[in-house]
Amino acid sequence: MKSSVSEKLSSGLRINKAADDSAGLAISEKMRAQIRGLQQAQRNIQDSISLIQTAEGGLASIENPPLQRLRELAVQAANDTLTDTDRNELQKEAEQIKSNINEIANQTHFNGISLLKGKSIILHTEVIKEAGVQWEIFQSGSTEIINGIQSFKGQYIAVGENGNILSSSDGENWSISNIGGNENLYDVITNGNQLVAFGDTGSLYTSNDGISWNSQTFTTDGVWNQPQLQLLDGMWDGNQYIISTGRGYMMSSNDGVNWLYSTTGSSQNYGVDFNGNTYVTVGNSGAIYTSNDGTTWTSQTSGTTDGLRSITWHNNQFIAVGESGTVVTSADGTNWAQQSLDADVLQSIVSAGEKVISVGYNTVGGKSIFTSSDGQNWETVEEIEGKRILDITYNSINDEVLAVTYDGEVLRSKSLTQTSTQENYQSLNFQIGSNAQQSLNIELSDVRTSSLGIDHVDLSSRNSAENAITLLDKALETVSAERSKFGAYQNRLEHALNHSSNYEENLIASESRIRDKDIARQVMESTKLDILLQSSQAMLAQANKQPENILQLLG
After folding, report:
1. Which of 252, 277, 281, 243 is nearest to 265 (CA)?
2. pLDDT higher than 80, residue 383
3. Which of 19, 61, 89, 255 has its CA 20 to 30 A from that of 310?
4. Angle subtended at Cα 511 by Cα 507 and Cα 515, rounded to the nearest 5 degrees
5. What is the pLDDT of residues 32-42, one digit of tens each?
6. Cα gap 309→286, rounded to integer Å
7. In the prediction, which pLDDT does 222 show?
8. The pTM is what?
9. Whole-angstrom Cα distance, residue 165 to residue 7?
């Protein structure tokens, strides 16, 4: 017992271990956590007050003298005793003042946090009409067949019968020129800087602007002859052009002028495409050939005997279309799956962003346009019916597709987006209590000239100066309101600091009553134990003395 009393006297605590008072220990520890949290919260509040004072000081530096001086200049410029030259001199000072306001707003920081440019603008873009769904029909001005179309340098180039070349900047209004021959042109392709148009009897032309065209002549040999060829479809793979022909040959060129040829063994090749690793060309009777270099071709089994007209790479797979509405798909160009759509001929297909779009025709009415996101599930465009559509192209910049028809018409479908702006003001959370959810949220200010509406203040004329006075009055009102807001924040934080300090003081007293020892009582207890101990020792000493005294008497 004496050791327990000594322990409590030496530590000054009533509870030194859980055995002293288990419930009291648990309550005391929770109070201690609260006390330490309150002490940190008070430091947080003091830091927050410093931040608020910094922001309010920056606002004060903007309000006076810069804004006040700027308004003074506007009042001066509104007076007709000044000439325009005089007002131009005032404008020079006004520009410097505006720059100074922006500098203060941009450079007012606390611990790296910008305090006076706290607004961000977020743009939300929503697609309200998707490309390939709704279509418009335009007359090109030509009544002859248009076989192919391509987007090129902000314009569209289309080619057709009798050497016709059409161009348009918007897909609506078209101009027609002729390359001077009667050849039927079947398609036009581009590498981004050069156009290559080609067609019947081996005709091939190049252009760098879509206006001036140069005829290109192949070298003939005993195997093939240019006038006997039909050049049907083509593509640019990033390094070279590849063109498929009507006699099963494939042509390649890196400049559009010098061409090499290879053969696939097909009687007729139509579409060709490339996925970065593999070339695939499709043709008559379901013929499919693949190549790794565009030169050596290997026959593949498509699973159909219907002629295939066009192919594209979309959503990690090749998708080819053709006669009888046939659609075949493959991820590697080797293994193909087949399905059919309700069309006599699917003439062309293009990957257009999130969708793939195929166009074609039925001999008697029927739908002409089909869309899919995965190449497996297709939707029919109901509004377009009875059109014989021959080719389609996608313009990724404008997010629109254009198609051309047998009757010289142009169909356009564009994606329409709606953009809205959202202004977000930066806010800060101050942890002003010892527990969760005990915080104060404040909204920072944006007092740059653009946000105050005075970035274009003009003092060069009397009328503009009067308008400037109105704008500057609003700006002064805004800055004053922001200063008042920060003043209210500071007062709120000072009240929180007082409350936290008072709370801490009372909590410390409460915790002390639970955990600390009453020293006076403990000293009294210790003294009592000392007296009892000493008395016991004296009594024991006397008891031990009695036998000795008896022996002396007997002796």
Report:
1. 281
2. no
3. 255
4. 175
5. 999 999 999 99
6. 9
7. 42
8. 0.57
9. 106
> What is the Cα–Cα distance from 331 to 309, expressed in whole angstroms?
19
CB proximity list for 400: less than 8 A, separation 6 or greater: 131, 171, 394, 412, 413, 414, 415
Tens-digit pLDDT profile for residues 337-366: 999 998 899 999 999 988 999 999 987 767
| Helices 68-77 & 462-515 angle (0-180, nearest 10) | 170
Q: Read off the pLDDT of each residue in 107-136 and give the average, rounded to a whole number.
A: 75
**Cβ partners under 8 Å of residue 236, min gap 6:** 189, 190, 191, 192, 242
Structure-token pair, residue 97: 């003042």
Tokens in use for 128? 């309200």
Strand order across the 260-263 sheet: 231-236, 241-245, 249-253, 260-263
Kind and range of the H or E element at 308?
A: strand 308-314
Chain centroid offset of residue 429 CA = 26
d(Cα 254, Cα 386) in Å, to the nearest integer? 39
Helix axis angle for 22-62 and 84-107, nearest 10°, is 170
- Please name which of 366, 317, 314 lies closest in space to residue 345, comparing C-alpha atoms: 366
DSSP per-residue string spanning 418-481: EEEEEEEE-EEEEE-SSSTT-EEEEE--B-SHHHHT-TT---SSHHHHHHHHHHHHHHHHHHHH
Say what the pLDDT of residue 488 is. Answer: 97
DSSP state of 183: P
| CA 486 to each of CA 44, 50, 106, 482: distance values in angstroms, whole numbers, following the listed order | 17, 11, 18, 6
Domains of the chain in start order, with CATH, are 26-126+436-507 (1.20.1330.10), 144-414 (2.130.10.10)
Q: CB within 8 A of 159, min separation 6: which ones?
A: 146, 147, 148, 149, 165, 166, 185, 186, 187, 188, 197, 199
Q: Is the separation of the CB atoms in 244 and 271 below 8 Å?
A: yes
- pLDDT of amino acid 69: 96
pLDDT tens track for 241-268: 999 998 888 999 999 988 888 888 888 8
Alpha-carbon gap, residue 411 to 130, rounded angstroms: 15
Q: How many C-beta neighbours within 10 Å does residue 515 have?
A: 21
Contact 108, 444 (CB under 8 A): no
Share of the chain above pLDDT 90, in %: 65
- Residue 65: is the preceding peptide bond cis (ω within 30°)? yes
Q: How does residue 120 score in pLDDT terms, banded at 50, 70 and 90?
A: low
> What tokens does 234 get?
């083509």
Lowest mean pLDDT among 75-79, 182-186, 290-294: 182-186
Question: In what order do the strands lie in the sheet containing 155-160?
Answer: 146-152, 155-160, 164-168, 175-178
Res 147: pLDDT: 96
CA distances from 272 to 199, 243, 288, 511 (A): 15, 7, 10, 84
Please tell me whether residue 177 adopts helix, strand or coil conformation.
Answer: strand
The residue written with tokens 């690793």 in the block is: 277
Amino acid residing at 314: H
Count CB atoms within 10 A of the CB of residue 313.
17
- What's residue 242's pLDDT? 96
